[in-house]
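Exam revision sheet. Question 4 asks you to relate a sequence to its structure. Input first:
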Amino acid sequence: MTITEMVQNQQQQRGRELAQKQSGKPHVNPYGTPGMSLNNAGDFRKTVAVDENVVQQVKQIAFDHMKNGYGMSNGEDISQVIKNYVLSIEPEQRLSASWTLNEIFHKEAVRLGDFVQQQNPGWNWGEAFDTSILDNYQQGFNIKI
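Answer key, structure tokens:
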């Protein structure tokens, strides 16, 4: 296929897409995950009930990030846990469940950071600290000793 033919194909595809939009039908990404499109998503940023086992996994990952990476990570593990869970529920619930689990993870990470800073006031994210500090940490609670 020549470059000219490739460009012509792209132009034809774009023309079909525009015609579809003008016909009033919403665009649906055929490669997307059902229920995960933000198009006409409404207010998906709301806390919804999620499986308690997944909540514990999310909190444990936040703890592991703190203990093994001093609060830093590439995020692949948490993304995979959330993805696996949302693919197991109804498409209509996926965006809100994903948002809820991300919020739980973030809040737990902040609690962990606050806990470490209470024990080591000069500490900042990514800086090494004595991880035995975390032996006294209890999930979901801020403890001052």
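Marking note for examiners. The mean pLDDT is 86.
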